[in-house]
Amino acid sequence: MRARLVVFPIKGRNWCFTKSVQPSLSDSSTAQQTPSTLRELWTTIFSSNPKSSTSKPELLIDFGVNKMDKAWKGLEKAPEGSFKNKIHGLGLRLLSRIKPSEMFLKSIPKDVTSVEVIYPSSLNARLVRRRLRHIAMRGSVIHKNYFYGSVTLLPLTAVFTVLPLPNIPFFWILFRTYSNWRAFKGSEKLLELVSDGSQTSKSTTVNEDERDDSVTNLKKAFSLRVLQPSKELEELLHRGQEEDGLSKCGILDICKAFDLDRNDVLKYRAST
């Protein structure tokens, strides 16, 4: 499975990193494998099926995420002015505070085997790869710490379940735990795909076997990523450029041309 990433500057050193919105077969197959009821979950976890590609912890996480998605969709359909509608509005305000870099790292699936990186033709390919490695390395450290921090807060927020109102703090911390875990795993996968498999030896006395292994590893590493300069993206950037950076209309044109999530990309512009 190959993921298509689009990288371009918003304003100065503030770059946008996003994944193209493309329906994948793996996502549909994962949705079909995830149990929909507790009984199915119990049967799947304790069944000895060696062909199952999903681990038991991942099944629990996917089951919980599906339940949260269904509950969120129920809040979206709530009548205007109702209590559920107000909870949905609060959730939207909380979600708007999530950094766009976290959304990008979360979008990197666990089963991706290679990436195609599209960037403006005026940028240097080495610089693009270096910026991708930086956001992946930084994300692996930050979201790992945030994940452990969220886990420690879960027991504290669970105390509020005794109240007659919905335990919003608990569900928010539960979501942040899952979100940071996904971003941490996505950063690890991205770092694996954009990094070289091995470093070339600096010594002048390198035997032939070591040289062959080094060349093989480098070929394998480069096969995991494709750096694709785009003249179309370069033209769209010039067309939408303003004094304070890339305009909103320019961003929407790029999102339309490369199948990007407009809300995620606009968050980068708001963070400048």
Automatic annotation (TrEMBL):
The chain crosses the membrane at residues 146-175. Keywords: Membrane, Transmembrane, Transmembrane helix. One of its GO terms (biological process) is potassium ion transport. One of its GO terms (cellular component) is mitochondrial inner membrane. InterPro entries: Mit_KHE1. This is Uncharacterized protein.
